[in-house]
Design goal:
Blueprint: E1 19-20, H1 21-28, H2 32-41, E2 48-50, E3 54-57, H3 59-74, H4 79-116
Antiparallel strand pairs: 1-3, 2-3
């Protein structure tokens, strides 16, 4: 994922638990209305909402926003392309777990087959 150390133009993310939309705007170089729009377009982006629908972003949200920003502004992806790219990044982890489960099941079936033979 895109961290501040990989992108010299963005400030380092402070060690806070929650960030306001204004703080995230400054940390990510994106205007607040763009952040609100991205919430609608990227299902992974879900800031906590409290009193009066105020948004509070966590560190993982800020990192995700920086990744989205990189895909859109630096790599030239469309919104749909960036969404697809983010979804595909999550799937290799799931595929690895599924492959491991299938492998374990095959080993167990081979052991059962050996016992029955």
């Amino acid at each position: 994922m895109l961290e501040a150390s990989n992108n010299n133009e963005l400030p380092v993310i402070p060690g806070k638990r929650y960030f306001t939309i204004g703080e995230v705007s400054e940390l990510c170089g994106v205007k607040p209305h763009v952040l609100r729009y991205w919430e609608q377009e990227f299902t992974q982006l879900k800031p906590v909402k409290r009193r009066g629908n105020r948004r509070y972003y966590q560190r993982h949200d800020v990192v995700l926003i920086r990744e989205i920003r990189g895909l859109l502004y630096e790599q030239g992806f469309t919104i749909g392309g960036a969404r697809h790219q983010l979804e595909n990044e999550a799937k290799p982890e799931e595929n690895k777990e599924k492959k491991q489960l299938i492998h374990d099941l095959l080993v167990e079936l081979e052991e059962l087959h050996a016992l029955l033979a």
